[in-house]
Amino acid sequence: MTQYTDSNVRIPQVDDRPLWDVVFAVYGYPALLLAHRLKIFPLLAERPRTLPEICTALNLHQRPAEAILTTATALGFLSLQAGQYALTPVTQEYLLEDSPNYFGFFWDLMIDNYQVCSFKGLEKAVRTDAPQAYGGGDIFKSHEEQIELLHRFTCGMHSISITPALVWPGIMDFSKHRVMLDIGGGSGAHSIGAALRLPDLQKALILDFPQVCEVAEGYIAQYNLQDRVKPHPGNIWQDHWPQADLHLFSNLYHDWLPEKCHFLTAKSFNSLESGGRIVIHEMLYNDDKNGPFASAAFSMMMLGWTEGKQYSGAELSAMLQEIGFQDIRIHKAFGYYSIVTGVKP
Q: What is the pTM of this model?
């Protein structure tokens, strides 16, 4: 053991808050998942309530309820005025199930698979370089074999997709494109967003497994877009892609390592006619890989769920250029998201 003397004992030059932040994140942020699971947010949607009223309504003891409510308030999901807790705009927008931008199904997915993001689960993912969701292996194969997993996963992906899906179509001029192919499009959130935001888009096709397309049909019907948004059952790796002049990949490249992303990029290039455009919608690393935290954390999540990782804008741009795309651009989109896009000459 190191022996210290007065000469080498000193007050640190930086404080220890970053270390505490790690601890507090481990314990603090799950409070929001608990508030969601305990249905605190829909309760407060009825009217603001005091701590005792919340405890009575949800049959909770005051000590844990206060800890959860204080955390949610500190993080901006609740407000506290005159002893009453109320919803904030972010909670009203994203955590009430009747909102079209409901995020809660993705939180449900995290809760149902919380072992993946446990320290033990992440340590195993790091040491083995293999995903741990559903007991390990290919989650997409698991979805094919177990329809309930597929439904819950697709609903979770819709939760995180529908809001950014309404934003990226307005980032640049897509007016000349008539048919969009949404590769691995899941619930069809991005096809729905494109159809709503791009009046000149005649049709959006959702290319995904047949079972996923069945789920997408329900979402398409909710928006009355059956005439313009169509599921196209198929295997993105093996099957021929239908004709389109706009290809969208959202939250797809991060599922795979570069070799498979190159394959998809090349297949897109070969399928598009001259003037066709590819759009990759992802949370990007900084080019020098020093952040941002959200993208780095997303890569940690991918360790637990897939074989993939997040990419930088420079990496995706180089991939598009190598395959032959030109006029490559990067644009900030909604929240943490960006798009990387190029045109086939």
A: 0.91
